Amino acid sequence: MPQKSLPFTKEQIEKIIKQYPTPFHLYDEKAIRENARAFKNAFNWNEGFKEFYAIKAAPNPYLMKILHQEGFGADCSSLAELIMAQKTGVTDEEIMFSSNDTPVEDFLLAKKLKAIINLDDISHIAYLEKCAGLPSLICFRYNPGKLKKGNHIIGHPEEAKYGFTREQLFEGYKICKEKGVKRFGIHTMVASNELDAYYFEETAEILFQLVAEISQKLKIKFDFVNIGGGVGIPYRPEQKRIDLKAMSRGIKKQYEKIIVANGLAPLKLFTECGRYITGPYGYLVSRVLHIKDTYKKFAGLDSCMANLMRPALYGAYHHITVMGKEKKPHTFVYDVTGSLCENNDKFAIDRKLPKLEQGDIIVIHDTGAHGFAMGFNYNGKLRSAELLLRENGKVVQIRRAETVKDYLATLNFNGLTSFKV
Ligand SMILES: *Cc1c(COP(=O)(O)O)cnc(C)c1O
C-alpha cells in the first residue's frame, strides 16, 4: 500500500491540536517555498516568466505573501480577491485579473490597481471602456473550441462559457489598437488538474501561433502569453508528479520554433496555477467522532464537505493517513464521512484503512488548493481554522474558525419581535 508523507509527527500534531482543536487545514510553509522556487527555476529560460498564483485556490493573505516573497503575482477574478491582493501588497501588473461575467465595480478596482485586465468576451471591451476606460495594456482570454480536448473537471472548451473565439480575437485586438491600447497579452485556460506535460506544450503552441498570426496581420506587439493554470498534482499515492522540466522544455521548443523564428522575441511567459503551487502542501486534520456499523462500516469525522468539497463534488480521491497507524495493515474498509445531511458527504468510499477508533487523528492530504476555499455554510456547518506550519516548526493561526455567531450574523433576529401576522 503506497503511502504519502507528512511534514509532522503524531506527537507534533497532538501538540498542535491541544492549542487548536480539530478540524483545521494546516499548510507547510517550507514545502510551499521550495516548490515555488523549483517552479520558477523550471522556466528561467524565459526572461519575463511570472507565475500569478490563482488565489481562489487558497485565498489567505499569508499564503499570498509567502508566494509574493518568492516572486509570484496574484491571479484574481472577483472584487474580494482584488482587495485581498491589494491588502497583501500585490498591485499593478503583479495582478492578473481573469474574471468572467464581470460587474462594473470589479473592473473599476482592477483598473485603479493598474492590474492586468484579461477580458473574457469581446463585448467587455465596450463595457470596460464605458465604465472604467481602456487601460494601455490589455489581454484577452481565448477559447480554442473544438481545437483542444478538455478534461473531466473543466469539460469541453466549446461547451465552456469562457473566452473569445478565434475570429473575435482578431476583431478585439483591432478594436483595441484603434482605441489606442499599446500593449497586448493573450491567455487561455483549458485544463484542470492535468498531469500530462505535453498538454501544456500544445497549449503554448496554439497561443504562440496566434501571437504570430495576429501580430503580423494587425501590426501589434505582444508583451506576454499566459498559458493559464491547470497543472495537476498526484492526489493518489501511486500517481507520478507532472514532469515540470519536460513541460518547460516543450514550451521552450515551441517558443523557439514560432516566437524566435518569427522575430517576435522577447515574449514573456506567464502561468496562473493554483493547485500545483499549494495543493500538495495543505492537510485537513480531523478526528474520528463516531464509528458506525450497519450495511457498511462508516467512520464519521468532526469535519465534513463544508471543509473539503472535492470528493463530494467530483468524486475526487484524497489520500487519508491515520496518525500512528501508518504501519498497521489496511484491511478494514470504511466510508469516511462528514456530518452534513447529504449522503454524498463522504471523504472516501470503500477505503481500505487500519482499524479505526473514536478519537483517531485523520489527516486528509492535498487540501492546500480548492480545499478550504470551496467551504460553505449549508446545514449550519462552520468553516474551520487555517494554520501555517512555519519553517522553524512553530504554528501560526492564519484564519480563525467560524463561530455560530458568525453564522447568525447576517440574520435579522431583532425584527422578529415586531413581526406579527
Ligand atoms: C481556477 C483558475 C486557475 C487556477 O486553476 P488551477 O487548476 O488551480 O491551477 C487559473 N486561472 C483561472 C482563470 C481560473 O479560473
Key phrases:
30% helix, alpha/beta, TIM Barrel, 17 strands, 421 residues, Lyase, Ornithine Decarboxylase, Chain A, domain 1, eight-stranded parallel barrel
Short overview:
This protein has 421 residues and is α/β, with parallel strands linked by helices. The protein contains twelve helices and 17 strands. It has two domains: 29-279, TIM Barrel (Alpha-Beta Barrel), CATH 3.20.20.10; 280-408, Lyase, Ornithine Decarboxylase, Chain A, domain 1 (Beta Barrel).
Structure description:
This protein is α/β, with parallel strands linked by helices. The chain has 2 domains: 29-279, Alpha-Beta Barrel (TIM Barrel), CATH 3.20.20.10; 280-408, Lyase, Ornithine Decarboxylase, Chain A, domain 1 (Beta Barrel), CATH 2.40.37.10. Helix content is 30%, strand content 22%. It has 12 helices and 17 strands. It has helices at residues 10-19, 29-42, 61-69, 79-88, 104-112, 123-131, 166-178, 197-218, 244-260, 275-278, 310-314, 404-408, and strands spanning 24-28, 50-54, 73-76, 95-98, 116-119, 137-142, 183-188, 222-226, 268-271, 282-293, 297-301, 320-322, 332-337, 346-353, 361-364, 385-389, 395-399. α5 (104-112) links the parallel β4 (95-98) and β5. α3 packs across α4 (79-88). It is globular, with a radius of gyration of 23 Å. The relative contact order is 0.15. The structure holds pyridoxal-5'-phosphate.
